[in-house]
Amino acid sequence: MLERYVKKILQARVYDVALETPLSEARFMSKRLNNQVWIKREDLQPVYSFKIRGAYNKMAQLTQAEKDKGVIAASAGNHAQGLAMAAKEMGVKATIVMPRITPDIKVQAVRARGARVILKGDAFGEALEHALELVAEQGYTYVPPYDDPDVIAGQGTIGMEILHQHPDPIHAIFVPVGGGGLIAGVAAYVKYLRPDIKIIGVEAEDSACLKAAMEKGRRVVLDQVGIFAEGVAVAQIGKEPFKICKDYVDEVITINTDEMCAAVKDIFEDTRAVSEPSGALSLAGLKKYVENTGISDTTLICINSGANTNFDRLQHIAERTELGEKREAILAVGIPERPGSFKNFCKVIGRKRMVTEFNYRYADAEQAQIYVGIQVKPDGNDREELIHALLEAEYPVVDLTDNELAKLHIRHLGGGRTPSDSNEEIYRFEFPERPGALLNFLNHLGHDWNISLFHYRNHGAAYGRVLVGLQIPNGDRAHVEEYLDKISYRYWRETDNPAYQLFLR
């Protein structure tokens, strides 16, 4: 199988439009990690993503009759742009079905390349369903984003370039994984020629479909998929990619949102490129691999797969970067409610640590509850040592550094508290973000329960995040959650979350 794919990769038609992108040395990251780190710069492609390779190669293999029908695809962005550009170069009409939540920057980029855009549904699955309906009705030729041998071969040219750009020993290549087309192509070529090189897949922890398939030994469908890294938000690994991945991918590493944000910053500092979260995924995996294994003095290569991100989203990425780098601790600390308490608290923290955030509102005559961000060192046990120092000084401390409720909402909610007899229940929601989405959310929420708290902030992401307090009579919670289940928004009950109990209850 590998020999067949290597032949297809060597014959792939990509360079009519795609570039042979450079392999850039990441000097800062190399020094930090005590390894030679290189970044494959697919963000420099004409569509700012590797997807042009597979899309163009697939188009080049179509018959004239298939091209004359026009091509169609469902995509949330990068494949859409690649196909639109390929179709324009070949003079073929292209239709792209995109979810309504697709960032406007991607919609406009597809239209600018001459493709017709149809916005349909709130998720990729609905867009795909509509695209296949149009194939049946109109006879379009469907061009898949990853589950196709010619697409895989186009992406595999990245592996070919890496090996001739860096003929010296390579310990591992880190590849972002969505549907699996990229890692399958890279693995096929590299493992055929250099089987000693590790191929390590990197997935967002809330869309880890390859990891789930590797553990089960078969493809599985995830119940839910996170969309922060929308470029890899896929519920099931592709059938064709998995035929390769199950035997030739050495390991799969999963990454959280904060770690991705930190990697966006890392790539910027070494290359001045602003990667999208899925583009920075592989570097985040590389960093975690070094941390977990302690490996040093080796060559590690990661693929920056794309740079199509909304400018509005950068604020959210910047907020989470320090947490992802483990350079900031978020703590809830009780301090005496009297003059000079904050000064004494800062003395315990010490001069070498900077307070990055401080939220407080008077609530109790005896003790103040503060929400505080404190700069810590990313290596070693600095956060644990800080907490130990505060406990030694008899400050009650709760570590909120990994608490999503605290990071998304509580830090913006310094205010009053709810009386203990209010019957308040707290729920955190995610809903598709588009014009009118917040009003639609409120309409779905119903009118049977009084809203006692509401926090929403637009991060420029595909999904909005809302914190809601509902005053629910005793015994009615099961009825409420039955109703919430029907509106089909992801939600979490957060009433018992310590961040809520400490700051808003």
TrEMBL record:
<dbReference type="InterPro" id="IPR001721">
    <property type="entry name" value="TD_ACT-like"/>
</dbReference>
<dbReference type="InterPro" id="IPR045865">
    <property type="entry name" value="ACT-like_dom_sf"/>
</dbReference>
<dbReference type="InterPro" id="IPR050147">
    <property type="entry name" value="Ser/Thr_Dehydratase"/>
</dbReference>
<dbReference type="GO" id="GO:0006565">
    <property type="term" value="P:L-serine catabolic process"/>
</dbReference>
<dbReference type="GO" id="GO:0003941">
    <property type="term" value="F:L-serine ammonia-lyase activity"/>
</dbReference>
<comment type="function">
    <text>Catalyzes the anaerobic formation of alpha-ketobutyrate and ammonia from threonine in a two-step reaction. The first step involved a dehydration of threonine and a production of enamine intermediates (aminocrotonate), which tautomerizes to its imine form (iminobutyrate). Both intermediates are unstable and short-lived. The second step is the nonenzymatic hydrolysis of the enamine/imine intermediates to form 2-ketobutyrate and free ammonia. In the low water environment of the cell, the second step is accelerated by RidA.</text>
</comment>
<dbReference type="GO" id="GO:0030170">
    <property type="term" value="F:pyridoxal phosphate binding"/>
</dbReference>
<keyword id="KW-0677">Repeat</keyword>
<dbReference type="InterPro" id="IPR000634">
    <property type="entry name" value="Ser/Thr_deHydtase_PyrdxlP-BS"/>
</dbReference>
<keyword id="KW-0412">Isoleucine biosynthesis</keyword>
<protein>
    <recommendedName>
        <fullName>L-threonine dehydratase</fullName>
        <ecNumber>4.3.1.19</ecNumber>
    </recommendedName>
</protein>
<keyword id="KW-0663">Pyridoxal phosphate</keyword>
<comment type="pathway">
    <text>Amino-acid biosynthesis; L-isoleucine biosynthesis; 2-oxobutanoate from L-threonine: step 1/1.</text>
</comment>
<dbReference type="GO" id="GO:0004794">
    <property type="term" value="F:threonine deaminase activity"/>
</dbReference>
<dbReference type="InterPro" id="IPR001926">
    <property type="entry name" value="TrpB-like_PALP"/>
</dbReference>
<keyword id="KW-0028">Amino-acid biosynthesis</keyword>
<comment type="subunit">
    <text>Homotetramer.</text>
</comment>
<dbReference type="GO" id="GO:0009097">
    <property type="term" value="P:isoleucine biosynthetic process"/>
</dbReference>
<dbReference type="InterPro" id="IPR036052">
    <property type="entry name" value="TrpB-like_PALP_sf"/>
</dbReference>
<feature type="domain" description="ACT-like">
    <location>
        <begin position="329"/>
        <end position="402"/>
    </location>
</feature>
<dbReference type="InterPro" id="IPR038110">
    <property type="entry name" value="TD_ACT-like_sf"/>
</dbReference>
<dbReference type="InterPro" id="IPR005787">
    <property type="entry name" value="Thr_deHydtase_biosynth"/>
</dbReference>
<comment type="similarity">
    <text>Belongs to the serine/threonine dehydratase family.</text>
</comment>
<keyword id="KW-0456">Lyase</keyword>
<feature type="domain" description="ACT-like">
    <location>
        <begin position="425"/>
        <end position="496"/>
    </location>
</feature>
<dbReference type="Pfam" id="PF00585">
    <property type="entry name" value="Thr_dehydrat_C"/>
</dbReference>
<dbReference type="Pfam" id="PF00291">
    <property type="entry name" value="PALP"/>
</dbReference>
<dbReference type="GO" id="GO:0006567">
    <property type="term" value="P:L-threonine catabolic process"/>
</dbReference>
<keyword id="KW-0100">Branched-chain amino acid biosynthesis</keyword>
